[in-house]
Amino acid sequence: MSLYGVLRTGSSGMTAQSNKLSSIGNNVANADTIGYKKTSTQFSALLLENSGTTYNSGAVETTIRTSVAEGGPTTYTTSNTDLAIGGNGFFVVSDANGNNYLTRAGNFVKDGSTGDYVNAAGFTLMGYDLAGGGGTVNGYDGLVPVNLSSYNMIATPTTEGAFPTNLPSDAAVGDVYESSIKVYDNLGGAVTVTFSMEKTGADQWDLTTTPPGTTTALTFDPTNGTLLTPAAGTIAVDLTASNGQNITFDISKMTQLDADYTPAATANGNAPSAVEDVEFASDGTVYAVYEDGSKLAAFRVPLATVASPDNLEQQAGGVFSTTLTSGEVQIGTPGTGGLGTITAGALEQSNVDLASELTEMIIAQRSYTANSKVFQTGSDLLEVLMNLKR
Asked: What pLDDT digit, counting tens, does each position of 204-233 carry?
């Protein structure tokens, strides 16, 4: 047995345990880092050729593994831009240079200067602009920063409505009942449409809409009070002359019963409204939420995966890049193809178990001390050998 071999073996053991202590220290330091994936140090023996009478001590080498596929616990927050992935997949994010990475760290906030949504490490959330189509399933093509700045204000013209009103069956010929409803033109300007119903005979009424001043004859079934004509159960209110749309009102639920006049009318459309909030759906759809409560689907956040997540290369900021052994990235819609879903108002914590890490730290400390004793003993024996010459 070579005394120099003992020194090398002891030194190898101390280096290996030092690597383990370093990975443990990093895990402990990042125990509260959102989406952090713990690393572990795995040992393998390096053996030298030995004869039957002598033993040549070898060494030990270490391999660092990252538990990327192991999820961390989910906690709920009060921010609707905090995102957690339930199941398989990664968010696609981009750095300032436009390089794309994968991450589970979903603590996104809106950047006040750019309008992009960035996480605590400064990476920008990427998605597909629904106005521009999708991208590729095996790459990052088509992905752009999720940004609602271009959706600052929207006005939706009225195109349809409903008028489910009851007209009193005992009304006298010549009686008139009126109702009004506010609708919107192409620029979001309010237009008041008035419905005027005049009884013209037994079970007969004229319905006049102003504007544009169009009259429609109504006929009701005398046995049950349901609407007979117009047979389609709709009327058209043409506002094109007022920079509006041709609005179709559903009057099929209009009745003539022995009851009071019950005016009721609804219509779609809205006045100009600014984006007030953002909403993330479980399938990754990003909605612009306007001040009037209306929503518009603007982006879709995809999830990415690889064949071997544990072989991804970990980068600073809790992001990962692909390697030859991880496989190429695959992109898909959350909730499909084995991908997880997105939960807004939640975050994935690190998968570090502090109790286990501290236990491993004690073991590594003891092992380091033991290896140092081997090195020290070899050094002492070598000194004894050198002293034989004196």
From this structure: 999 999 999 999 999 999 999 999 999 999
DSSP 8-state secondary structure symbol assigned to residue 52: S
Three-point CA angle 269, 270, 276, nearest 5°: 130
What is the predicted pLDDT for the residue at 130? 87
Q: Which helix (H) or strand (E) holds 385?
A: helix 354-387
**Residue 140 pLDDT grade (very low, low, confident, very high; cuts 50, 70, 90):** confident
DSSP 278-338: EEE-TTSEEEEEETTS-EEEEEE--EEE-S-GGGSEEETTTEEE--TTT---EEE-TTSTT
Q: Report d(CA 192, CA 213) in Å as an integer.
A: 13
Which domains are delineated in the chain? Answer: 3-70+351-387 (no CATH), 74-153+274-348 (no CATH), 158-268 (2.60.98.20)
CA–CA distance, 62 with 46 (Å, rounded to integer)? 10
DSSP state of 249: E
Residue whose pair of structure tokens reads 């559903």 in the numeric block: 250
Q: Name the pairing type of β-strands 341-344 and 330-332.
A: unpaired
Using CA atoms, how far apart are residues 252 and 295, in angstroms rounded to an integer? Answer: 28
Tokens matching residue 168 = 């009193």
- Render pLDDT for 41-56 as a digit per residue (tens, 0 to 9): 988 887 766 666 676 7
Q: Compute the C-alpha angle 164/170/172, nearest 5°.
A: 105
Distance CA 367, CA 166 (A): 88
User: Is the pLDDT reported for residue 390 higher than 70?
Assistant: no
Start-to-end CA span in the chain (Å)? 23
Q: Which long-range contacts (CB under 8 A, 24 or more apart) does 219-224 make?
A: 220/167, 220/255, 220/256
pLDDT tens digits along 165-192: 999 999 999 999 999 999 999 999 999 9
Give the C-alpha separation, 89 to 330, whole Å. Answer: 10
Residue 119: closest CA among 90, 160, 152: 90
